[in-house]
Amino acid sequence: MIGATTSGELRAHNRVRLLRAVHDCGATRTRSQLTRDLNLARGTASVLVAGLAEDGLLHEEPAREHARGRPTQVPGPHPRGPLALAVDVREDAWELAACELGGRTTVLGLQPHDGTPEGVLGPLGDALAAHRRRLGHRVVGVGVALAGPVRHGGLVDIAHLGWRSVDVPQLLGLEGAEGPIVGNDTAFAALAEARRGGLQGVRVGLHLHVDFDLGGVLVVEGRPLAGASGTGAEFGHMPLTGGDRLCPCGAIGCWGMDVGANALLRHVGLAYGGGRGRAQAEQVLATSEEAVAANARALGRGVAALVNAHDPEVVTLSGHGVELYERAGQALMDSCGPGLMAIRRDHPPRIEGSALGWRGALLGAMESVFDAFLTPEGLEKWRENHPDQGRDTPERQNVTHSTLKGAKPL
Ligand SMILES: [Zn+2]
């Protein structure tokens, strides 16, 4: 109740707490469970829910199963409630989704791109503008995940694509108050993991995201460590495997040179780099045991080094990391084990594939948007912008639901 001194402030604070709880549990808990979780009086909870429903922020549905007696209500997203637009910009394509409170995600578009800043961000900016027009006041923010370090303000470097200090908000045509929240894909995937995946409730965890190469970040108390200028999540650019290849980032011997789609392609003698060759890499992943084992061994070796340094409770893997662990878990562990300090070997951390799969970056972008929205100020602004019923156009502002979880890109 920090800062809540008047009854109005207390109410605003409790509105945020209730919406936050509904969002974090994925709109699965009943009103009475939430009332208990938040230590609210029953009457207070009723008044809060009614007010939030009136504002178009919540909608209650009867629970699917309930004990005898009065049917139980489950607060969830309002059918015309707030939406976060979330984008995962990968090296070869971008995926755009609308996300409701509670985390239900609807993919609005998946588009390959040519890898140039203008070729990626021009059409993406057009798509975002079109969806904002269509969805109107429902869009409360845009979150964009990118496969490279992101400095505060949205300046992005993607070494594989030759991007240097690309001003992402400017090229998207979204600046000022409409500006997007731009973040690194691994950091966003790690945030999603902390909120909805294997790092929930974990004090110190390590998350690794494998796509064309790999990114990694330490997650402390649910927060990926961002670094002083926002460009953390770059464990992939540490010389952890003893290689001596020049990495596109400018450093020599980066771990990411040996893990991911580019390394798989290189292993079998195929062309790689520039965000090309995803289909071929997936073919290699499915058919070449040797290439997969080499990738997994490199992954394990780096994991051991990071575990020695950071002592995490859990190591989670997303993207191709899930398949590497499933297909060559033994090779990964055999390579990781000898690299661990003796004091780490008795209680090594759990290593697990993410249940969020490829959706982590997208979901993390969504979480960042809702983190900014779920504040007394954010909800007050929503109230001011919320149109009268007569002016609302529900048909046009609807999104078609298709709950997607863990599906592969492209
Ligand atoms: Zn590098």
TrEMBL record:
<feature type="region of interest" description="Disordered">
    <location>
        <begin position="62"/>
        <end position="81"/>
    </location>
</feature>
<comment type="similarity">
    <text>Belongs to the ROK (NagC/XylR) family.</text>
</comment>
<dbReference type="InterPro" id="IPR036388">
    <property type="entry name" value="WH-like_DNA-bd_sf"/>
</dbReference>
<dbReference type="InterPro" id="IPR000600">
    <property type="entry name" value="ROK"/>
</dbReference>
<feature type="region of interest" description="Disordered">
    <location>
        <begin position="382"/>
        <end position="410"/>
    </location>
</feature>
<protein>
    <submittedName>
        <fullName>ROK family protein</fullName>
    </submittedName>
</protein>
<dbReference type="InterPro" id="IPR036390">
    <property type="entry name" value="WH_DNA-bd_sf"/>
</dbReference>
<feature type="compositionally biased region" description="Basic and acidic residues">
    <location>
        <begin position="382"/>
        <end position="395"/>
    </location>
</feature>
<dbReference type="Pfam" id="PF00480">
    <property type="entry name" value="ROK"/>
</dbReference>
<dbReference type="InterPro" id="IPR043129">
    <property type="entry name" value="ATPase_NBD"/>
</dbReference>
